[in-house]
Amino acid sequence: MHGVPRPQYRLPGPPAIAYVRCGEGKPLMFLHGIGGNHSSWMAQLVRFQDDYQCFAWDARGYGESEDYPEALEFEFFADDLIRLMDHEKIERAHLVGLSMGARILLDFVARYPQRVASLILCDCFYAFDHSLTPQKQAEFIELRQRPLLEGKTLAELAPALISSLVSPDCSPEVRDQLRASIKALHVESYLKTLAASIGYNRTAALDSIRVPVQLIFGADDRLTPVSIGEEMQARIAHARLAVIARAGHLSNMEQPEQFNQVMADFLGDVEQDAR
Questions:
Q1: Which of 27, 86, 226, 269 is most buried, with most CB under 10 Å away?
Q2: In this structure, are residues 15 and 67 in contact, taking their beta carbons and an 8 Å threshold?
Q3: Which residues make beta-bridge pairs with 245?
């Protein structure tokens, strides 16, 4: 695979969910963040397709997946994930989520723990009003929601949003990739997701997780700093925490080699322990 293809598979709806599937082996599923889509995982799909059957979706209202008319309840994403796993006849999977994707997985593991082989939770918060300081809560809204409600375009929104997410060392290529994913957002669905995220709180879910967990945070992540990862590690039984140097909120994109090595080591240990 020289690049990530457009999603070639489609889960019937409503809403219909578009997704990429590649490789062979045990299922490994990737869930993107609030400003991303399946292409956010390009470096991981290329790396892991030789050892796993990899999946990366466009969440409902993102990319080539369908929009939906109703207001969003955040739990709808977990409903979509179980639909996808059932459709693909996947009993258990290794699940990887970044930011919003990780929040979806905190919902999912609480409801369907028997379907989870392991969790990799990256650059995320577990409660909007607890994990993020009041300043960060205001910044989250100001950079994302307010400009669109005031009539700005996604292209106008992108520069300030990208600067808030990446490290000082972020390459121009990654910035361009982020700009493309932001410009591809569906405005109405994105606003629905933002509204649902503001009320998000899954603090209680952390204590009940009993599957292997790898936490990954960028050292330069200003939205969800490493301290949140430390809080999560203290609450999740036997969780590991890895900090990716010279990476911001999108650690898998900024430092893919470091990120992929952490993933590979963790998954290897999980597979070894399962034998």
A1: 27
A2: yes
A3: none
Confidence at residue 177, expressed as pLDDT on a 0 to 100 scale: 94
The 3-class secondary structure across 129-191, one letter per residue, is HHHCCHHHHHHHHHHHHHHHHCCCCHHHHHHHHHHHHCCCCCCHHHHHHHHHHHHCCCHHHHH
pLDDT tens for each residue of 58-91: 999 999 999 999 999 999 999 999 999 999 999 9
Which of 101-119 are b and which e, b meaning 16 or more Cβ less than 10 Å from the residue's Cβ?
Answer: bbbbbbbbbbeeeebbbbb
Which residues are CB-contacts of 202 (< 8 A; sequence separation ≥ 6)? 103, 106, 107, 110, 126, 127
pLDDT digits (tens, 9 = 90+) for 150-195: 889 999 999 999 999 999 999 999 999 999 999 999 999 999 998 8
- CA 59/CA 31 separation, integer angstroms: 8
Alpha-carbon distance of 32 to 250, in angstroms, equals 10
Residue 67 burial (CB count, 10 A):
13
The CA-based angle 190-90-30, given to 5 degrees, is 35
Please tell me whether the peptide bond between 14 and the residue prior to it is cis, using omega within 30 degrees of 0.
Answer: yes
Q: How far is CA 209 from the centre of its chain?
A: 18
Q: Which fold has domain 9-274?
A: Rossmann fold (3.40.50)
Model confidence band, residue 2 (pLDDT cutoffs 50, 70, 90): very low
List the domain boundaries for the chain.
9-274
pTM score of the predicted model = 0.94
